[in-house]
Amino acid sequence: MTSKLEKLWATKTKDDEWWSSFVTAPLAIAANYIAVERAWITPNRITLASFLVAVLAAICIVIGGQANYIIAAVLIHLSHVLDCMDGQMARYRQVSSAIGSYFDRLTDQVQVILWFGAIGYAAYAQTLRVEPLILAFIGVAFYGLRGYVKYVAIEIEMTRDSSYQTKMAQLKETPAVAGLGFGFRANALWLFREQSKILGFDEGVFIFMLSAALVLNALTPMLWIFAVSQLFYGVFRAVQQGSQIGENAKSPVKK
Questions:
Q1: DSSP 108-172
Q2: Each residue of 196-250: pLDDT tens digit?
Q3: What is the mean pLDDT of residues 117-137?
């Protein structure tokens, strides 16, 4: 029993996003404890289930009403737990694939658009003001820019150095500092340090923000936070990646 749990825990991404790190990813491990032994449950089917649940959440938001908002908040969390499960299961079974990774990332991007588009519409329906729609558009656009500049930078760097991605992956490798086999103090310190990730305003933070806004019916304030944070990070990442490409271009490629 313990060895299975330890093997599952090892599939957890070491540098997970904020809410994923200590809430949805551990819940996914608990669910996978049962699911990984069932052959008919596959990572790609979990990815599809996650996306369908995300779509259902967006529909509940568009329909409106406090009861539907609460249902949507639960569904958003369920979608994210499933989103964590697929990768964990693939790593546990050692069946990770390029096509699986592609569809996982693609559906992640689409569901962010669906959720915030639905929230923008719902806030517009409440206030009859165009402001929420504009905020949702700005947030989604600059969130997309964050990912776009990352992959453009990778493509450009790969033309200079075909081993660029391998080198970057090695730099990002970090040893485990908490989890199974570590004491209470180590895990408490890890939990405390994880809280700073909330300032990253990435997908893990969105899960919390969206659900809290729906439960509290505070849609427009949340859209302001979303739009401002993504505008900042979109511009910041674009400048950062551009500067890094310029610096790397000055250095000879070491074979």
A1: HHHHHHHHHHHHHHHHHHHH--SHHHHHHHHHHHHHHHHHHHHHHHHHHHHHH-TTHHHHHHHHH
A2: 999 999 999 999 999 999 999 999 999 999 999 999 999 999 999 999 888 877 7
A3: 96
- Rounded to whole angstroms, the Cα distance separating 37 from 56 reads 28
CB 111 within 8 A of CB 61: no
Per the rule left: phi > 0, alpha: psi between -120 and 50, beta: everything else, 131 is alpha
Rounded to whole angstroms, the Cα distance separating 152 from 149 reads 5
| CATH architecture of the domain with range 2-250 | Up-down Bundle (1.20)
pTM recorded for the entire structure: 0.91
Q: Please report, for the chain, the start and end positions of each structural domain, with discontinuous segments joined by +.
A: 2-250
CA distance to 6, 120, 234, per residue, from 64 (Å): 42, 12, 30
Q: Is the pLDDT of residue 255 over 60?
A: no
Here the tokens at position 43 are: 């990572």
| Pair 207, 77: CB distance under 8 Å | yes
Which residue type sits at 101?
Answer: S
Summarised one tens digit per residue, pLDDT across range 64-85 is 999 999 999 999 999 999 999 9
Residue 112 phi/psi, 5° resolution?
Answer: -65, -45
Mean pLDDT on 88-117: 93
Higher pLDDT, 255 or 159: 159
Measured between its terminal Cα atoms, the distance across the chain in Å is: 46
* The pair of three-digit structure tokens given for residue 191, joined into one six-digit string: 């939990």
Q: Is 116 exposed, middle or buried (0-12, 13-18, 19+ CB in 10 A)?
A: buried
The beta strand positions in the chain, using DSSP E, are: none
